[in-house]
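During the no-cost extension, the postdoctoral fellow (Dr. R.K.) reprocessed legacy sequence entries with the updated structure-token encoder. One reprocessed record is reproduced below for audit purposes.
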Amino acid sequence: MKGLTHLSAGRFKNYTQFNSGLPNDVVFGVCVENQNIWIATTNGTARFRVKDNKFDVYTPANSPQHEPWGYFVTYGDGKVYAALWGGGVLEFDIATEQWKSYRDPDGEMEVDILRDDGLIHVITTSTSYVNKILWVSTYFGMSRYDGRHWRGYIEGDSGLPSNFINMVKARGRVAWVCTDRGLGSVNGDTNRWVSYVPVDPVWAHRREPFPDDGPMEGTKGWEARIYDDAKLLKTVKLEKGLANNHIYGVDFQGENVWVATSKGVSLGIWKPEETR
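Re-encoded structure tokens follow.
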């Protein structure tokens, strides 16, 4: 909420909209592209050219942004992907410095009329590009794009715990999905899901896209649900669960998984003898 900070050799340097070319002090996402830093702000997407000490700012005035509110940026294979609130996903080609826009072809805000026709929704929250696969999270489901074909995932038609997704991050062929109702993971090649959710029959049947009663905690423990696409194959009771079902972020350390929740950080330790 107060700009961008750089830490090097034990020293901090702060960049704000008043002392630099940063377009806004509200920063939601940062990624590294070669020698440059990309920043998602509420007033445009910026590229900080470190060697030149200069900011390039992209807004609806000089790029195909529907609006300037950026949530996330990621880089891979010579392209930067920016997730915009209400603006879909923008792709920036580093070699040509040209933008390409991905938006929901339906043009429908509340539902996905035609399945797998493109980006599932324009309110995007994050992107993850790994192994030439682009994953996009939204507040109404998730999309996967392999460069030719789109695949959409929604609650009830897959193992996705909820359509309200804060972040998606891929490791290899598997994407990990952070929702307001638990943590999910899906293999994009097989559509095999494992979702980690609280045991709560009442909550499991709720369908409100925006819960107004805050994060809901399971009162009967946690379980892992294994799906083949939308078909539930197996439910495994967990000895320990996540700190909370409202998941904000995920990252990896070897085979282990770190998860940021609304009530603390959880560590998932991979035990192959228990999962095979």
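The first strand starts at residue 4 and ends at 8. Residues 182 and 245 are 5 Å apart (CA to CA). The remaining legacy entries will be reprocessed before the final report is submitted.
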